[in-house]
Amino acid sequence: MVIPNISDEFMRMALRELEQAAYHHEQWAEKLHGTLVCRAVPDEMDLRADAHCQCRFGQWYYQTGSIALKNHPGFLEIGIEHERMHKCAAHLLRSLTDGRVVARADYERFVGALKRMNLEMSSVRDELQRALFNLDPLTGAPSRIGMLSALREQQEFVRRSHVCVVAMLDLDHFKSVNDNYGHLVGDTVLVEVARWIMARLRPYDKIYRYGGEEFLISLPDTDAATGGEILNRFIEGIAALPFTAEGKAGFSVTASVGLADLHPHLPVERSIERADRALYLAKAQGRNRVVTWDAVMDEMPAGPEKSA
Questions:
Q1: What is the CA radius of gyration of the chain?
Q2: Which helix (H) or strand (E) holds 185?
Q3: Alpha-carbon dihedral sign for residues 284, 288, 289, 295
Q4: 207 pairs with which residues across the strands?
Q5: 86 within 8 A of 52, measured Cβ to Cβ
Q6: Which CATH superfamily is 147-299 part of?
């Protein structure tokens, strides 16, 4: 499953919303079981065709729902199982109101849907918690924790005839930003650049803070030519971001990018190294550009400090 590229603030909000909605769901399930066991009069709302939209959980899911999770596969599965569960529940309640004995098979279908929904909610909740743990505290982008594992998972798709590129993006002359405007302003630049990129990535793309002013970006189902076009748009957008510092004129920053295919058989680290060599060449050629790895770059010596 894929957690979208959202800030830590929105991720925490999504987790809180999901936990509150899960509580309302548990309350509903307890009441439903009580109605069945005690053969009480059912709630008319639970007999409606749109009951899954009317319960407290459904009102959240279909009306206000977490924007951060809308495109998450697990979130979509929760909705499917939630609707199925309500249909099964309505069938059980109709048996009750008609004076018929609830069939075991009908009850087991209801319980199965209930369990699957709970499992999907737990899975999404656990993934949100893991993602929050792995976030870089400054920028809100994922940190390097779990990066290699995620790229190795993506490499499995590449082995099955998919494509993917990895890019190393480094802010140019970033040491000068810190020296001229202070580290607090430098931190603001990192945060704004990371958020700007995350807002433009697809749900299954990923950005990681690799270290300092350097980020690693993975673009699944993207070849090198298309990846180059995307990253060129990124560096153009970054260069257009306005920054300010108290008592000084406004300024902007540029970025250089090295791009490489995620190789299906070489270690993931090797593909990262290739992107890094391409980044070194982008710096050497004047910065503020995208360079794609080529085999001749393997003969190049390791580069100096990239931000120099």
A1: 25
A2: helix 183-198
A3: positive
A4: 217
A5: yes
A6: Reverse transcriptase/Diguanylate cyclase domain (3.30.70.270)
Residues 6 or more apart whose Cβ sits within 8 Å of residue 164: 154, 155, 157, 158, 218, 219, 220, 221, 222, 261, 262
Tokens coding 234: 């990124």
- CA gap 250, 19 in Å, rounded: 43
Sequence-distant (6+) residues with CB within 8 A of 194 are 136, 139, 140, 141, 207, 209, 215
Domain boundaries, the chain: 8-133, 147-299
Q: What is the pTM assigned to this prediction?
A: 0.69
pLDDT along the chain (308 residues), means of 10: 65 88 95 95 95 95 76 87 97 94 94 96 88 86 90 96 98 97 97 96 93 97 98 98 94 98 97 96 97 86 53
Closest by CA position to 213, among listed 232, 197, 228: 197
Dihedral sign (CA 135, 136, 137, 139): negative
C-alpha to C-alpha distance for 288 and 304, rounded to whole angstroms: 17
SS3 137: coil
- Whether 231 contacts 167, CB under 8 Å: yes
Q: Which two tokens stand for residue 281?
A: 């060449």
- The fold adopted by the segment(s) 8-133 is Four Helix Bundle (Hemerythrin (Met), subunit A) (1.20.120)
Quote the pLDDT of residue 63: 82
- The residues assigned a catalytic role are 213
Q: Which amino acid is at 165?
A: V
- Tell me, rounded to whole angstroms, the distance of Cα 240 from its chain centroid: 25
Give the integer Cα–Cα distance in Å for 234 and 13: 28
Query: What are the strands of the beta sheet with 290-292, ordered from one edge?
Result: 206-211, 214-220, 164-171, 255-261, 290-292
Which pLDDT score, from 0 to 100, does residue 4 have? 60
What residues pair up with 290 in beta bridges, in sequence order?
257
Question: Tokens 């300010």 sit at which residue?
Answer: 244
